[in-house]
Design goal:
The structure is a single chain. By secondary structure, this protein is an alpha+beta fold. It has three helices and five strands, in the order βββαββαα. The strands form two sheets. Strands 1-2-3 form a three-stranded antiparallel β-sheet, with no helix packed on it. It has a two-stranded antiparallel ribbon with strand order 4-5. Helix 1 packs across helix 2.
Amino acid sequence: MIVALARPSAIADDSGHGGVQILVTAGPSRFAADLGPVDGGLDVGPNPHDLVAAGLAACTTQTLRLYARRKAWALGAVHVEVTWRRDPSSQPADTFERVITLGGDLDDAQRARLMEIAEACPVHKMLVAGSRVVTSVAA
């Protein structure tokens, strides 16, 4: 039996020209990832931690939108800011701080429920639970 491999979720290509600017393909999009100048980059794209934070912000926003749509709630604009920071003296050392702004004509109970639903965002759950990374070398 042949098992088909899933399409990669993301691909990163380094041209080998010496910089840390990386071409990333994620879904149908292609963009540059980089590091800031203090870390040897040119700051022409998000750094890897910002990409993880972006995934959390996007997933949270989509989760809230889909839930409100299913409930037919009057959720207006949704704004999610995620900030990553590392404190080696803490366990775990990495913290993603998420600030959610909900627009629309929602009552207090609906707002409270949406904040609970944010905790069920799949990327949030993945980050909190931890993940396995399996690495292999291409033939």
